[in-house]
Amino acid sequence: MTSEAKVQDALDAVRTRLDAAARRAGRDPSAVALLAVSKTHGPDAVRAAYAHGQRDFGENYVQELVTKAAALADLVGLRWHLIGHLQTNKCREVAGLVATVQSVDSERLVKELGRRATATGRTLEILIQVNVACEAQKSGCDLAALPQLIAAAQGTPGVRLRGLMTVPPAVDDPVESRRWFDALRGLREAHGGEVLLPDLSMGMTHDMEEAVAAGATVVRVGTAIFGTRDP
Ligand SMILES: *Cc1c(COP(=O)(O)O)cnc(C)c1O
Fold first, then answer.
1. Ligand 1 pocket member 223 (CB < 6 A)
2. Cβ of 204 less than 6 Å from ligand 1
3. What residues pair up with 126 in beta bridges, in sequence order?
4. pLDDT tens per residue across span 10-22
């Protein structure tokens, strides 16, 4: 099998798993968007997925994103999403390039993204990344700081807050991730519900079904589509 066919078969398998998980949870499969995480994989892997209908791609590192986006500028309708930690001095590079920044975790970042997006004449969609298990040295907003960060995001021109994102602690049994996914959904309920925060970005290769069962509207899947990443 060619590497292109491998990616396309894997993409089909992931979509089948997500659709089945949605139906088991009594949810409409079309309410679960798949973000294909292409970090460390080359432009050809992205092209293979795109040729198979995939349009949303996630990247973690700004430099890799910029390089890959340039190499794939011919793919009409492809949307990039930044899901990795962002430094304020990189906001200018991403504000005109991505559809959403899912890893917003400080007011400084909100303000700078808003300023840069406004300068390019657009409104940038953002998600707030929440450190839902209060892990030390992990990206994401602290629970205590979340209300203020939500308010800041809602009051900043140039950005539109779409919801919340989380990366729960790594565990062997995906069932253990469920409580953190439920916690993220609970935070959404506490801050205006689906009306104000329509998106919950949660679930990766290891625990995508658990996330869908808990209400994910975006799952971020890399390994199950593109294979394992070289270190
Ligand atoms: C790498 C990454 C993913 C994808 O992880 P897989 O286990 O390869 O599916 C999802 N979200 C974030 C934030 C990531 O860094």
1. yes
2. yes
3. 101, 161
4. 999 999 999 999 9
Give the contacts of 58 (CB within 8 A, at least 6 positions apart). 35, 36, 37, 38, 39, 80, 81, 82, 83, 102, 220, 222
Q: Is 220 in the pocket of ligand 1 (CB under 6 A)?
A: yes
Residue 231, domain member (yes or no) = no
User: What is the Å distance from ligand 1's center to 204 Cα?
Assistant: 6
Q: Which domain holds residue 176?
A: 3-226
What's the N-to-C CA distance of the chain in angstroms? 24
CA of 43 to the centre of ligand 1 (A): 18
Residue 222, ligand 1, Cβ within 6 A: yes
**pTM beyond 0.90:** yes
- CATH number, domain with residue 120: 3.20.20.10
pLDDT score for 7: 97
The predicted structure's pLDDT at residue 178: 97
Q: Residue 218: inside a domain, yes or no?
A: yes
pLDDT for the residue 46: 98
C-beta of 60 in contact with ligand 1 (< 6 A): yes
pLDDT number for residue 180: 98
Torsion of CA 145, 111, 161, 85, to 10 degrees: -70
Nearest atom in ligand 1 to 35's CA: 10
Nearest atom of ligand 1 to the alpha carbon of 226: 8
Residues 57-101 have pLDDT tens digits of 999 999 999 999 999 999 999 999 999 999 999 999 999 999 999
Length of the chain: 231
230: left (phi over 0), alpha (psi -120 to 50) or beta: beta
